[in-house]
Amino acid sequence: MNSELLEKQQRYFHRGETKQVKFRLKQLEALKRAIQAHEQEIIATLHDELHKSPLESYSTEIGFVYKEISFIMKHLRNWTKPKRVKTPLTHFGSKSYLYPEPYGVSLIIAPWNYPFQLAMAPLVGAIAAGNCAVVKPSEYTPKMSSLLNKMISETFADEYVTVVEGGVDVSTALLKLRFDHIFFTGSVPVGKRVMEAASKHLIPVTLELGGKSPVIVDETAHLELAAKRIVWGKFSNAGQTCIAPDYLLVHETVKARLLEKMKHYINEFYNNGHYAKIVSERHAKRLVSFLEKGTIVYGGRYDIEKRHIEPTIIEDVALDAPVMQEEIFGPILPVFSFSSMDEAIGIIQQFEKPLALYLFSESREVQKTILEQIRFGGGCINDTLLHIATPYLPFGGVGESGFGAYHGKASFDAFSHYKSILKQTTRFDFPFRYPNYPYALKWMKRLLK
Ligand code: NAD
């Protein structure tokens, strides 16, 4: 059935309609209108499944997608034009161009933590670049999956864009097919499976994965703002954010003060009911098991049935404790102190290259050292999360946190192939390259050095 769907989309793609810029702009506008029409349902579903507040739902899910659509619509005509690039003297007489072209039919696989945004933002890129798309949302947020299915099927013909609902079995079946591109957002282990499946047909992949993203606070940091911004970044969506600070490294001389301030902000932000739920009991149990090792500094209470875990800070955690062996992806923040920046860097380098890194420091030298010495996807100096929310910064990981990037122009690029074209003149023809030209080697040596 899925293979029929793919063939249908491939046939549609070959008709060429999606390649017209006017068509793409119309579809992006249609998507925006569809989201507007379903806005209240989206907010209600996010509240129902993840207990997200309307503010969180609008800023991190719906509003985020609107902004992507408007930014991309504004620039699309320009991006789709062939770009003239330089031509070296060796190719005198010719001109060089880059022609962006859509991959064809893209498969977009999304996770549950931002179940609307992480399915729709890649789709915006796919449409902008002129692709057809099959979107597979997460089975852990089934109400959002069916809402997306309804919204997309009301808006687009299934030969152009469609949603396929289901879990691992559905995803595995889709991955057996010969899509032209796969855009996957999810965990590292599943990312590896996706890449393995894609390798069978050499399908290009964009992998938006996760990892253990550190936050560092040194002795020069503005502690009040550090506390506020770390608490917000860590406990938004109850820590179920791919770029949430995973663990905190704080200079020993400011640790006590920072933790006091963080407790204050946890109280201020999350004691009013605006706090998300854990996605499932299974996920809640996994998180609660992390609390067995270490000393709870703050929080620590939970109700597995209600899928609630308090914002929690723990210390006295060994670096080889279970909580440090995988991405936490929940509202538990282990804290470690350090006495020198080298020690902090040493700890971070014991782990895979993270998706994000956050540094709170007023020292330019420390900022430079961290940026130069640690490899990570992206991040912020003196803030958390915000680098994801600008269309001017491509968002993606490196190494185990994934590869490829999107948002803004990078979304258009993620779903495009740039064809390199040389247009040669027929007005003359230099003889140097041809065999048996007497001075060929001499000329080549002069030109290619
Ligand atoms: P997941 O990898 O378990 O699932 C993601 C998607 O893959 C789902 O649609 C699921 O149905 C499918 N899937 C699951 N197992 C599969 C398998 N064996 N074969 C094929 N498909 C399979 O991830 P999740 O639990 O939904 O999301 C959490 C993870 O996603 C975290 O690691 C987080 O860091 C990461 N994440 C990354 C980003 C990013 O932008 N880089 C954003 C959000 C989440």
Approximately what portion of the residues adopt beta-strand conformation?
15-25%
Radius of gyration: 25 Å
Biggest sheet overview: 7 strands, mixed
CATH class of the largest domain: Alpha Beta
**Count of runs of 4 or more consecutive helical residues:** 14
* Helical/strand content category: alpha/beta
Tally of distinct domains = 2
Write structural notes for this entry.
The chain has 449 residues and is an alpha/beta fold. It has two domains: 2-209 and 402-421, Aldehyde Dehydrogenase, Chain A, domain 1 (3-Layer(aba) Sandwich); 214-396, Aldehyde Dehydrogenase, Chain A, domain 2, CATH 3.40.309. The protein is 41% helix and 18% strand. The chain has 14 helices and 18 strands. It has helices at 2-14, 21-50, 54-80, 117-128, 142-155, 168-175, 188-199, 223-235, 255-270, 281-289, 341-348, 364-373, 409-414, 440-447; strands at residues 83-85, 95-102, 105-109, 132-136, 161-163, 181-185, 205-208, 214-217, 247-251, 295-298, 302-303, 308-309, 312-315, 332-338, 356-360, 378-381, 402-403, 416-423. The strands form four sheets. The chain has a seven-stranded mixed beta sheet with strand order 10-13-14-9-8-15-16. Strands 5-4-3-6-7-17 form a six-stranded mixed beta sheet, sandwiched between helices. A three-stranded antiparallel beta sheet has the order 1-2-18. Strand 6, helix 7 and strand 7 form a beta-alpha-beta unit. The protein starts with a helix and ends with a helix. The mean pLDDT is 96.
